[in-house]
SprT family zinc-dependent metalloprotease (Serpens gallinarum), 164 residues
Amino acid sequence: MPELLNSRVEACYQQAEAFFKRTFRRPQVSLRLRGQKAGVAHLQENLLRFNAQLYRDNREHFLKQTVAHEVAHLVAHQLFGPRIKPHGEEWQSIMRGVYQLPADRCHHYDVQRRPGTRYLYRCACPDGEFPFTAQRHTLVGKGRRYLCRRCKSTLVFSGERRVA
């Protein structure tokens, strides 16, 4: 676990403790998050998961904003309980009041998408070709049907695949 990340998590907790004049239970911290999310706070498990690639690529902003964002979720949960909205007024007040940071819900990091296979489906239209993701292709295999919006015919797998 990178030392800077752990140090920032601890600093956020110390700020919250000084502000609210109470202690907070420290979370387990993991860098095993992949995909598009920069971080996730698991409230019931008291666990913070961060995206290692986005941390490496955006270190300064990530440490300042993303870590505080996720810690604020756990602090809000410990203060106000499980019935608050994830980015509601309690969480926003912690971001603005405790950390003096914008209460941004989403990051704007450049996320590299992995190439994926697309399964080509066709309809009765002359130019009707629809690339399906692997997930949607699997749903068709389980019985789900998709219709063309123009001709209203059922989309049928052509047998062709492309790497996108």
